[in-house]
Hints:
Elements: H1 2-11, H2 13-32, H3 42-46, H4 50-74
Amino acid sequence: MIVNMIDYLRDRLQKVIYCCYGVMIFIVAWSITVDKSYAHSWAEKMIPGFWSLFALCSCGIVIMVARWFGKSGIQTREDYYDK
């Protein structure tokens, strides 16, 4: 069942990308309407969608570090211990 869903989404990749952009725009637009009188930092008060952008950048950094960490020696050949 999950394979069928992945194939369905892969066949409609452009629509999936547009939907993701739409959700991101909706989150930023919604964050403009949130009461910012209780914000703790300058960035929260002044940058619309700060926490959404922060989460996106943080996820990107985690992915890049994980790739670097994996390529630095964790990912090895399957016959590594056989030799």
